[in-house]
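Input.
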Amino acid sequence: MERPSWEEYFMDIARLVARRSTCLRRQVGAVMVKEKNILATGYNGTPSGITHCAETGCLREQLKVPSGERHELCRGLHAEQNAIIQAACHGVNISGATLYCTNSPCIICTKMLINAGIRRVVYLDGYPDTLSMDMLHEARIEVAVFRNLVPLPAGGE
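Output.
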């Protein structure tokens, strides 16, 4: 068995975190890492104590909102937002960290990542948000597309 690189390891964890998502449209996982230590994780879904979209239905689907538009028309939080909130709740400094995420961040998450001091973003899949990429580059945040995807074992952990 080949030992995964650090990049593979953290991206595999982001993919596993995404499996906790309660979103009906897209399952996203995020992992904040500094000096090879996991600081926080997050997945997309409704806030704690709020009914999941599986029970209420997807408001964005009902309104036919295209992906990447009208983020305020959603009951859920994005994975990156939940990771930032988790770090804040536990008093964890994420400034200077790398974000490993299964999707590239939207513009709302990008603005939060910039102000949180994230220095690097590694993602698997793109997201239809060019303004987000423009702002990440302007903020001099390194952005990398993860290419060495190693499949997770069948059947879970």
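The beta strands are 29-34, 37-43, 98-103, 120-125, 142-145.
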